[in-house]
Amino acid sequence: MPEWKEICRIEDIPVLGARRVARDQGLDVAIFRNEADEVFALLDRCPHKGGPLSQGIVFGSSVACPLHNWTIGLCDGQASSPDEGCTPRFEVKLNMGSVFLKSDELLGHAIELTRPVAGPVTRKGT
Questions:
Q1: Which of 11, 46, 58, 79 has its CA 20 to 30 A from that of 65?
Q2: Superfamily covering domain 4-108
């Protein structure tokens, strides 16, 4: 039986917004709340260029990445066509107004993923 970790109260997540959950290893998890008070959790990383999804605009059951406006499904982390890619999702449980995430997912799910590092382009032979 999975163990769940209480993260926050649902009202701690802004409507049509997100809250970040830091982890000891790996990228943060973004917890989203839509206008219907549905709560979703994804790795805080767009599958395109690694943008912080927690800073995106939530609409319906999607979030728009703040960098290049890719639409990512909150239910499955899947980019909307014609874009391709997926960001890992985390299971969420609501109980009496509290938001819970699975403890084992927080500890080990998608910890190997990182953000792309921006920097100067180097050319071979120059």
A1: 11
A2: Rieske [2Fe-2S] iron-sulphur domain (2.102.10.10)
